[in-house]
Amino acid sequence: MNILMIPDISCEEDPKCWAIGRLAQDIIDNNPRFNFYQIGVHPREIVGGYMKIKDLMEKENIKFDLIHFQYWNSAIQLMQMLPELKDVPSLLTHHNHHSLNEEDWSAFTMLNEMTNWGVDELMKNHKNVIKIPHGVDLNKFSYIKEYPPKEPMVGYVGRIVPWKHLKEICEVSNRLKYKVIGCGYIDKPNYWQEIPKSNLIFHGGMGRMNMLPV
Domains in the chain, ordered, with CATH? Predict the structure, then answer.
């Protein structure tokens, strides 16, 4: 079975790949019975990805049995540029809630979301939606054994950029008297200055590979 995996940034091409690429790589590493072809296609670099996929399909004559799209914006553009992809069974995994109501997903055979709310939203316009939550390897990560915890907290993992809304999370949590524990790196220093920090415990830093406490 030939499967084309399309994250935003492929770990095969860039060892410093981001979260989606690592999740895609885990699928590949743990399913050796399938023949995977992985091409990273970022929405801002769609033409390069388009050419690589065309080469696989035409020059190398690879016939795909399944396409697993891992980034909705790239997936939409590729379907428009390569209509022949619509003839291949496809799964589109949504890694965030921002895009659920923004596009027509009818070109994809099945959609995957991580939360019950996300599944319900997608099912308003698509009949084939499956919930597959992100997993946590408990051999590598600890978890809160005392539940509910004595002190409510909110967790945040991600870059510090306006569209991920850490500022709003901290503001609401502060009104609720919750602490926020976050990690990531500061992509937008000016935005970082706007974030209230009285209830924020943050582990991160400046730059992708420099995760020192701020």
Answer: 2-131 (3.40.50.2000), 153-205 (no CATH)
Radius of gyration of the chain measured on its C-alpha atoms: 19
- Dihedral of alpha carbons 37, 75, 159, 154, sign: negative
- Tens-place pLDDT, residues 31-54: 999 999 999 999 988 999 999 999
Q: Given this model, what pLDDT does residue 138 score?
A: 67
What does the H/E/C string look like for 4-39?
EEECCCCCCCCCCCCHHHHHHHHHHHCCCCCEEEEC
pTM here? 0.78
Which one, of 5, 30, 9, 32, lies nearest residue 20 by Cα? 9
**Which DSSP string do the residues of 92-109 spell out, in sequence order?**
EE--SSTTTTTS--TTSS
Nearest residue to 108 via CA among 127, 132, 136, 81: 127
d(CA 141, CA 6): 27
Whether residue 20 contacts residue 70, with contact meaning beta carbons closer than 8 Å, is answered with: yes
Tokens linked to 193: 């200055």
73-84 residue pLDDT tens: 999 999 999 999
CB 105 within 8 A of CB 125: yes
Distance CA 57, CA 34 (A): 18
